[in-house]
């Protein structure tokens, strides 16, 4: 069935949100049951339509929502992605976790192009020009914890399926430990060699232009969030090699896309049989945002309350 023959509304609750990055504008493992047009939220429209899929498992079913971070035609540069709308839409659809994919440069010899990484830490090197909070305006002040920006429970869940990654007969590793760190730069230009070397000194393992503010906004929505970083290049730090270009990145997108699909498919199938605990219980984040808001509800304007209700209909 073509997309335009599918329903453009969906009444149920979504369980898992999936965000595709560069080269990942859909996942073949997702058989669509509805295609929602770009969703209007109090923070603007989502980057792309949102496709809804349903998976029947042994003990229930799982609804998955997918959106393409840069739009279906890759028309949005990293600085202009409507991150707030994207995460708000997934929250509004009642997602219980977000699985995000991103093409990254490698800052370590051991992380080869086509390897995948589940980072547990990040360094924000964006320039403060992205809207990166729902709780940063006059009349609404909130400070959520962000010491552990990713969901370790979710990362462990994904890591179970590391053996599905392949690379034309060569080894292909899913790297995962608690120190793996993604650096987020503003772009759109890639880093200089000096910057790339500096990120290595700072402890960076991979680099992209999109984990900030996506991870921050997921935290402000109490959503367990894990990014799967898909390595495409060695950035600019290797003395004897040309610095990264888009051509180099493109050369790895097909293999990475196939692996992303295999990994997502395994994760989704397992979730459809039994929803993992971190999704059932909220991974320790439930209630955290209500606690972190300093502004008294009586002092909030109707407009502010309505925005908050879009995300948390039960809190205020
Ligand atoms: C085309 S390489 C730079 C581009 O790739 C990554 O995008 P995404 O994270 O959406 O996969 C990186 O963050 C840059 O936006
Ligand atoms: N070297 C790099 N720097 C920033 N973002 C990237 N995405 C893919 N490769 C990248």
TrEMBL record:
EC nos: 2.4.2.28
Superkingdom of origin: Eukaryota
Provenance organism: Torulaspora globosa
Annotated coiled-coil segments of the chain: none
Binding residue positions for substrate: 209, 233-235
Listed GO MF terms: S-methyl-5-thioadenosine phosphorylase activity
Keyword Nucleus: yes
Pathway recorded for this protein: Amino-acid biosynthesis; L-methionine biosynthesis via salvage pathway; S-methyl-5-thio-alpha-D-ribose 1-phosphate from S-methyl-5'-thioadenosine (phosphorylase route): step 1/1
Identification of the protein by name: S-methyl-5'-thioadenosine phosphorylase
Localisation per UniProt entry: Cytoplasm; Nucleus
